[in-house]
Amino acid sequence: MNAIEVKNLTKVFGKFTAVDNINFDVKQGEIFGFLGANGAGKSTTIRMLIGILEPTSGDALVSGYSIKNQSDLVKKNIGYMSQKFSLYNDLTVVENIRFFAGIYGLDGKKYEERKNWVLKVADLENMENVITGSLPGGIKQRLALGTAVIHEPKIVFLDEPTSGVDPISRRNFWDLINELSEGGTTVLVTTHYLDEAEFCNDIILINAGKLIAQGNSKELKTNYIKNPILEIESDRIVDSMEILEKEKWVGETSIFGNYIHVILNDNTINEGHIYDLLRDKNGISVKRVEKITPTLEDVFIHLIEKDSKKNVQ
Amino acid sequence: MFNRIFAIAKKEMRQLKRDTRMLFIVFFFPVVLLAIFGYAINFDVHHIKIAVYDQDRSLISSEYFDLVTYIDNDDQIKKMLDEKIVQAVVVFPKDMSRRLLSKQEVKIQFLVDGVDGTSANVIQNYVNAATYSYSIQLTKEYLAVTGKNLYVPIDLQPRFWFNPDLQSTRFLIPGLMGMILIITAVISISLSIVREKERGTIEQINVSPLSSIEFILGKTIPYIVISLINATIVLLAGYILFDIVIKGNMLLLLLGTFAFLFAALSLGVFISTIADSQQVAFQAANVTSLLPSLILSGFIFPIESMPIAIQVLTNITPAKFYIVILRAILLRGAGISAFWDQLIYLGIFGLVFIALATLVDKKSKNK
Ligand SMILES: Nc1ncnc2c1ncn2[C@@H]1O[C@H](COP(=O)(O)OP(=O)(O)OP(=O)(O)O)[C@@H](O)[C@H]1O
Ligand SMILES: [Mg+2]
Question: What is the ipTM score, two decimals?
Fold first, then answer.
């Protein structure tokens, strides 16, 4: 049985369709990445899956229970960390832990055990009585995750858990996600960071409420971009891009830091053609041209641009 | 279930302990109100300062009047009233004694400062009463000399029951309790729920298996306790400062208070479902509870003397019903038969708002 099965899930706010008939499955125990630009409908989907927002149509089974008719049972089996910071800033660390343990009915030995686990994973041993609001962002996020799974749910939903924290803290946070996953917990996580998406077993991408791609990262890279990609390092990036875009054999161009990625329309084009065009015809000094396998970013930019063009037409 | 309710209540107490602004509203406000209404706003009129322009020179002062000064010419009358040295001036005519003795009619002029209409009215009543009884006494004396008895056809002797000295503090204490409990109940509960919405912590509670009933009970328990503490403080203050003893049954008092708290808390919960920010909640709580409980509850202005439309409007404040109950128990020592209908009103009021709150909450799940 899958941990989550989403069937034709749709949410309409007034006349605006925030989530448009999406379908996907999440396997037991996996880390499932949920990607999409701002406003794509990620949080709306999650809020339906955790039973606090009613779908307009469609349904989903979460841990085997329907979010439409059995949201009470769904709630017993999940943990959730919202996009907003959701602990009480004016309570101490241990008071927050005690409160969330309390509403999930943990007490006695079980409570002690879970409290110590949360303190350990958040790196807050001996800091129980610190006011939560005064903690650094990264620690707060881990404390929030710890309390969100204090009752050891089978599935946990994390909505942009690492937004606004530094790279080291993000790394620590992902260590914790991996630890949960190894312990058998299914993790559904939304993120804007594509390096984080690489840590996920399966990924879906949504744009304007519609699901536009799914698979693991390898499948995404091979299934959605068939044409070769060239990475170009030159000293006049913007000029180079303008020149390239005039060529018939250039499909899409995008800037990655100091490089340009070019998706070719024509398999017969190679590195030589680029040197020829940029250096010899236009006098731009080209340091390097290399054929690369696409990154997730290439794939997503490609897919989102393609989808947006389709929507405009 | 009780553990979960308790977890919420404990958390609420801990937060309250650190929230100085809320503590201020909850505990300090009542003390201020008590001071204002107990001492500053006193509707009793005592010690009216008068000046006497006695062209005849003979007068005694009394409990009701403090004789401030004698004056001896017309110009001073205006000065005394203008500068608020006195509230009234009595002018006895020059030939008063002679006229009285010769059984002629005497005209006494009484000038009252009419700026404070209520006091002016009271002063006028005192003077009328004093003049009336003095006239009767003189008549009696005169008749006694001539060997006849006076027959007074109607002698009106007013007695005020339940509040024999017509002390306004007595009358105000029940209203004051209503106001203070409204503040702790409606305002603090709505603010405390809306704050969770504002900060997003409510999402975490919504996804937990906690039911709305458990959440609301947990949230309200601390405020019920605080309300009861506040009520006790007001009653103690009433006893120590103003000699007000509870005439009726304590258990009935508690029952009435619970009914009132149920109504007030439901209103607070309802406000929290429609308001999205603490500011809006505070305004809404003010407009729907604090102001009506001051103006429309019968606390200060008697409801019977309001226009019919306003009388209907008075039903929006649960304080109205509570004040009737309190006055019955505190001042009259009445039993439940005197106010059972008020208890029912309060119950209906509470149920209506809880139902409305549930409805709005259900709807918000689709938004
Ligand atoms: N309650 C609501 N009423 C009306 N529109 C809403 C509501 N909630 C969300 N939306 C709209 O639905 C769209 C999707 O919002 P959602 O929060 O799901 O996006 P998201 O993918 O989580 O974006 P982000 O990355 O910014 O968090 C947005 O355009 C948003 O404005
Ligand atoms: Mg979001």
Answer: 0.81
